[in-house]
Amino acid sequence: MMVLPIVYFYLCLYITLVNSQNPGVLVNQPKFSPCATWNITGITFSNSFAVGTNPGTVFIDKNDTIYVTDRTSNRVQVWQNGSKNVTKTISGGLNDSLGLFVSNNGDIYVDNGYTNNQIDKWMVNSTNSTVVTYHDGGRCYGLFIDINQTLYCSLNIHIVLKISLKSIGNMTQLAAGTGTPGNTAYMLNWPRGIFVDINLNLYVADGNNNRIQKFSYGQLSATTIVGTGASATIDLNGPSAVVLDADGYLFIVDQNNNRIIGSGPYGYRCLVGCS
């Protein structure tokens, strides 16, 4: 997700795109044809003037509005669907933000942990932020809100925390990891992108372990589903993001290999950046 410039990869003619119809799902989960392929050449969507030299997260909501954390200028840039120009800028008190999540009603949650150790929230049409929660783990590389209104944050201290947005006081709980880097089923090493499905299973891009971990609901022990330690999948090098489409197939940013990996009915394959 930290690749500049930001690009779109157009889909082949026979791909089918529809948004998930489950009203409880908080993210844009398109449905793809199993035969989908992507153009090998990307079209530049934005340059460093708009998003800086080191953008953090790219997020696309269910209305196809695009959000990008601009770490260089300490802001979030927003493009409405169909616009080539920035339509909104969110700033104020941010410092080198990484993680970003936008809820169905338009509320924006932003990592503000580099020096402030907090997660901020901008309510829709608001110009001021509120602090959702404080934590002691530095920055959130990934943010996600599940169907039960629980906010997840992957931290560079090798854990994933979760915070109920419905409870008074927003008490944090451990969702994954031990706080010590390692490669056992209970441990993580620099967790980055995260995703929670409708069954509340947590998927973690375990960056320094070169794998994708799946933590079943309520479990602190994970199963390696892609990468080092998983059989008959594909090798990864520093995965930084993982998402699921409407059919539960994975899409992975394999950052150090400069490519995007996808799963399907016939296994894993390279989709973009393939040599």
Automatic annotation (TrEMBL):
Keywords: Repeat, Signal. Residues 1-20 form the signal peptide. GO terms for molecular function: zinc ion binding. PROSITE patterns: NHL. The keyword Repeat applies. InterPro entries: 6-blade_b-propeller_TolB-like, NHL_repeat, TRIM-NHL_E3_ligases. NHL repeats lie at residues 179-218. This is NHL repeat containing protein. It comes from Adineta steineri.
